[in-house]
Design brief:
- The chain is α/β, with parallel strands linked by helices.
- The protein contains 11 helices and 7 strands.
- Strands 1, 2, 3, 4, 5, 6 and 7 form a 7-stranded mixed sheet that branches.
- The longest helix has 24 residues.
- The radius of gyration is 22 Å and the shape is elongated.
Length: 310
């Protein structure tokens, strides 16, 4: 690809990165600052003896091209041989750049306050600042390669998905991911993974809407709301069916958020990386990119003028 031509074509930027040209260029300054700080020492972390810029210039010679590279990788998740061929270098160089740029993208999103909270001990403060008291909680599975270790095979096998997975919980508010749980093996239940939330001080008027997988979760009174389960020997009453439809109509919002996060195919396709912690890192970055899109697109919606009634 001619990257200089790509950066001048708005439609191509949207297709390659999943961001509009305006969103892409808004992210460039923060990413450039993080990159400059990262390259201030040499590759061993020591003080430089020579100025930066010596040696041949690579294909990704500007922060814009580096950001395009890593966003394209997250959005489409090609194999590294294809990725290197598209950008003009070999597979080892592609792998080196992925491992170097992914943490920098995470730092960029953290500076922009777009990453979800990961620690339940700090979730109280985040929820206290949420303007929306309706919170949606759900779990999502992500496929991984079949582990070679028999014990890890059993831990990661998801009977519901019929494949080996890892799992995260997402707590959302107004289409933004406010909390992302640590990545756990796919065999864990949603309720068990959500047990650390029992120590969180939710706002008094808040309500956490879930599905039936969270029955038994010990949240403050009147905080947890989920559908009624159908008894084995009889049907639900008409009012219970209406209540379940009402809950489902609200709870579908968290499914839309999960779909937005999984626009990054790196968290929807089978994860091929085996580096420890990388599966958790990419999920956090994907949630941050979703929050970035939602923030920019919510601000782009014009406010409607109030209707005057005579």
């Amino acid at each position: 690809m001619d990257l200089n031509q790509v950066l001048r074509k708005p439609n191509i930027i949207r297709i390659l990165t999943g961001l509009t040209p305006e969103e892409f260029h808004d992210l460039v300054p923060a990413f450039t600052q993080v990159w400059e700080e990262h390259t201030r020492p040499n590759w061993l972390g020591r003080k430089r003896q020579r100025a930066k810029g010596a040696g041949p210039r690579g294909q990704l010679d500007t922060p814009e091209k580096k950001l395009l590279f890593i966003l394209f990788y997250f959005r489409h998740y090609p194999v590294q041989e294809v990725l290197g061929a598209l950008f003009g270098f070999n597979q080892p160089q592609a792998n080196k750049l992925i491992m170097r740029l992914t943490p920098l993208l995470q730092q960029t999103l953290r500076r922009e306050l777009l990453l979800p909270q990961r620690q339940t001990a700090r979730l109280d403060q985040v929820l206290a600042e949420c303007p929306e008291l309706k919170l949606l909680l759900d779990g999502t599975d992500r496929p991984v390669r079949r582990p070679q270790n028999p014990q890890k095979q059993r831990d990661h096998y998801s009977g519901r998905r019929k494949r080996h997975t890892v799992k995260n919980l997402l707590l959302t508010s107004q289409r933004a991911v406010e909390y992302l749980s640590p990545t756990a093996p796919g065999s864990q239940s949603d309720k068990r993974l959500a047990e650390p939330l029992e120590a969180v001080a939710f706002p008094k008027a808040s309500v956490v809407i879930t599905d039936l997988g969270f029955q038994g979760l010990q949240l403050p009174p009147h905080t947890l709301l989920h559908p009624d389960r159908k008894p084995r020997t009889r049907e639900l009453a008409p009012w219970q069916k209406s209540f379940n439809r009402l809950v489902a109509g609200v709870r579908v919002g968290v499914e839309h958020v999960i779909g937005g996060v999984k626009r990054c195919r790196i968290v929807s396709d089978i994860l091929r990386h085996l580096k420890a912690g990388f599966n958790d890192l990419v999920m956090e970055v994907a949630c941050g990119l979703h929050n970035f899109r939602e923030l920019h697109r919510a601000e782009a919606i014009p406010a409607l003028a109030p209707i005057q009634m005579n």
